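Why do we care about 3D structure at all? Because function follows from shape, and shape follows, mostly, from sequence. That is the central idea of this module. The next example makes it concrete: a single protein chain, its amino acid sequence, and then its structure expressed as C-alpha cells.
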Amino acid sequence: MASISALGIGSGLDLNGLLDQLNEAERGKLEPVERQIESQQVRISAYGELQGALAAFEGAVGRLAEPSLFQSLSANVTGDALQAAADADAAPGQYQVEVEQLASAGSLASQRIDVELDEALTDSDSTLTLAFGNAPDGKPDAIHISVAAGSTLEEVRDAINAHEGANVSASVVNDGEGYRLALMSNDTGEAASLTGMTFEEGFFADGVIVSDAEDEGAGAVVQPGRDAAFSVNGIAIVSPTNQVEGAIQGVTLDLQQPGSATLGVEQDTLAVREAVSGFVEAYNALKGTIGELTAFDAESGRAGELLGDSAVRTIESRLRNDLSAMVGDPAQGELAMLSELGISLSLDGTLSLDPAELDMAIANDMGAVERFFAGGEDVPGMAGRLAETSSQLLGSNGALTNAIGGAENRIESLSQRYVRMEQGIAQTIERYRVQFGQLDGMIAQMNQTSDYLTQQFAAMDAQLGRD
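And the structure:
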C-alpha cells in the first residue's frame, strides 16, 4: 500500500487516482458475469418454488390413487350416549345401541386414623395387602406391599403408589374428623376393583386409635368397580372399559353416558369429495405458480424468472396430456374423462369442479369413481398416471432436477470464470502500478534535470551580465 500512496510524488501527477479509475474500469468487466450468476441463482430459487407446487400436486393425486380412500367407512352417531370410529374391517350397516351403565373404577378407604400426618403408624416392618375380588386371568388376586418401620400415613401412601404391580392410586383424605387412606383402581371394571385392604398384625403403633372399626385395620369399600353394560341391536354386552372394540366388527365404541344412540356405518363419501377437491386445488395452485414464473409485463418489460424455460414447458405438456387422455372404456359403461365427474379444463388452463355433478357420480357408482382415479391392479387410473408423471418430473433424472443441476453447473462455471478474470485484473493493475512507478521516476528525473539546467542557464546569464 505504501507504494501506491507514494505514486505521483516525483512527478506531481495524481497517479493513485488514475490507478483507481483503471481498476474500477477493469472490474466493470466482472459485472456481466455477476449478473449471469445472480440470474442463475434466481432461476434455481424459481425452480425450487415450482418444485414445491409440483410436490404438493403429487401428494394430492397420490391420495386419489389409493384404493383404500374409496373403501373407507365413516361412523355417524345420532345421540349423546356414545362416539364411534370405523376402520377398514367394518361393514356398512345400522345399529341401535342402548347404554345402561358406564364402566367405573372401584375405590376403597381405610377407617379413620386419629393420628397426625407426621406420626409413625408402625414400629416394625409390616405388610399391607390389597385384595381384588375377581382378578382376570394372569393377574394376582392380592398385592402385598412392604411398609417400613416408623412409616407415617403419607409414607404408606407413597409406598403404595411406588409399587409397580398395585395398579391403584393412593391418597390421604381428611374427612373433617381424621385421616383416611383412600385408594382407587387405575382401571375400570369389576375385575380391577379393590375388595379389601388389610394390615398385618402389629401394623399400628401403640396408642393409635382406629375409629369406627370392628377390626383394627379393616378397610371399608366406598364404591365397587363396575363393568359397562350396553346392548347392540338388542344383544347384551358387558365391557370392563368404556372404549369397546369388537362388539361391532371394525368399529370402536366410546361410551359417553347412559342413553340411546343410533350408529350408522357407511361409505365415507366426504373423504372422496375432499380428495377430488384437493386434487383440483393443487393443480390450479401449480398452474398459478407456473403463471407467475413465466409471466411477462409489457408495460414494465419485466419477465418472469422462467419465461420460455424448457423444463416448465415439459411439465405443462406432460400433465396436460395426462389430464386430457381417456382412462376407462366408455363402451363398457366406465368413466373415461374428467368431465364425467364434473371436472373441466378452463380456457386459462386451470381446472374447475362442479360439486353437484361429482356428488352424482359418487352416489351412482363409487366403484366406477375408484376405477377412474385409482385404476386396477395392472392399469393405473387418472390419479395413478398423474402421480407417476409427477414422480418422474421430480425424480433424480426428471426435468426439474436436470434444470436445477444445469443452473448449478453454470454458476460453478461462471464462478470459475469470475475468479480467473479477477486474477487477470489484479495482474493488469499490478502491471499498471509498476509502469506508473517507472513513469513517476522518469518524470522526477526529468524534473531534476530541468531544474539543474535552469540553474545552469541562470548562472551563465548572471556571468555574462557581469562581463
